[in-house]
């Protein structure tokens, strides 16, 4: 486990949980890290047998364990062994001498298959994710949907990542799966959904209210990407309210392309923690910029909010058509046209190394956007990418530096602003500066701007820098 905004000196992730058995450098409780149910667990297994279960290597020896949970089915009786040997076409289940009275057989260990077997009438998101609970255990959270193809006056989606032909979809259920025991819980997050109300009447013991979910898991609920992609695709056309404009598709939007590994592909929604304009606190959102049809400039920016009490709210910033707002591909072109950046990246991409550009973040800041893109260097032998540079673009300025802070300082010209303040205020000595009243006010606003910059509060940063500029302008006029 590693924080997304920290790296080591050599560009590697700053791991806060690492090694086997896992060690934590933060106050994070870890009690049960074994994963018996996951995304790559497609085969049945026998646990608590006389055979040792491999846990992890330690020096020249191996460490073994025995399963202590209640997952799976007890397989002590001969009849059960015969039934499961027939089910899985494996005679070893019947003939093996390693089974005991406490042995258990685990099957349907793939979490998506497991949930779909219990509730096949629901559709499931393709991106389940893991959570470390306060009890120190690993949990999977997967979004589930109620769907239909018979909703009146609604357009069906032929290319739907969840289910083809669907014209009604709601993320009404969150599925939580214990990675150790395999226990599956279905929590209702949209009790107003008519389809779910019907399913709940048919299976009254299957669903639980959302408040029954442990609070430490509620804090990790997020807006699903598959649903967001569907909503973006529909909104690209149906944001047009004028019948003539809609008929001619004059204002159709599309998901922009990005460059990845030398080729173009559609941009995917990206989770990020940021402060939305006019909001007081940072929050977890899922965001995506949008382009006009067959054009590369940006025409809108859309996000889904993930934190309560605004969970599920969608925000769209529609941009003025008369102004050029750079889209992701245009920023990529400007980066490639920057001689010092292009030369350095070309040099890195030689002699067994490969340059990889990460996800480009398009972040709204006041009445503009800031673009952030990490640059990784990967050896063809090691296959371990390292973060080497961060590119930041803002309006007509582009800078590539070792860290995000350095790139932001270069783009916003913070260092030169301070030097200019020092020159204008007439600092007589580095040890004993003599500052005027206005100079002290300028430096105070500058220090506050730096604090906002560290917190990534772009609105506060811009406001304080504007105050610095105003004071310095007045002082230069007085001179």
Could you characterize what this model shows?
28% of the residues lie in helices and 27% in strands. With 479 residues, it is α+β, with helices and mostly antiparallel strands. The protein folds into six domains: 1-30, no CATH class; 43-106, no CATH class; 111-221, no CATH class; 228-318, no CATH class; 328-410, no CATH class; 414-478. Strands 8, 9, 10, 11, 12 and 13 form a six-stranded mixed sheet that branches. Strands 14, 17, 18, 19 and 20 form a five-stranded antiparallel sheet that branches. β19 and β20 form a beta hairpin. The radius of gyration is 28 Å and the shape is globular. The two termini are 56 Å apart.
Q: List unreliable stretches of 5+ residues.
A: 424-433
Rg result: 28 Å
What portion of residues belong to β-strands? 25-35%
Quaternary structure classification: single chain
Helix/strand/pairing class, anyone? Answer: alpha+beta
Q: How would you describe the shape?
A: globular
End-to-end Cα distance? 56 Å
Strands, total number: 25
Number of helices: 13
Helix content: 25-40%
Output mean pLDDT. 86
The largest sheet is: 6 strands, mixed
Structural domains: how many: 6
Q: How would you briefly describe this protein structure?
A:
This protein has 479 residues and is an alpha+beta fold.
Topology:
Blueprint: E1 17-18, E2 23-24, E3 45-47, E4 53-58, E5 61-65, E6 73-74, H1 78-87, H2 92-95, E7 104-106, H3 111-118, E8 123-124, E9 129-132, E10 138-148, E11 168-178, E12 184-188, H4 194-202, E13 207-209, H5 215-218, H6 225-238, H7 243-248, E14 253-254, E15 257-260, E16 263-266, E17 270-274, E18 283-292, E19 300-305, E20 314-318, H8 328-336, H9 339-348, E21 353-357, E22 361-365, E23 368-379, E24 386-394, E25 397-401, H10 404-412, H11 414-425, H12 437-454, H13 458-478
Parallel strand pairs: 12-13
Antiparallel strand pairs: 1-2, 3-7, 4-5, 6-7, 8-10, 9-10, 10-11, 11-12, 14-18, 15-16, 17-18, 18-19, 19-20, 21-23, 22-23, 23-24, 24-25
Helix pairs in contact: 11-12, 12-13
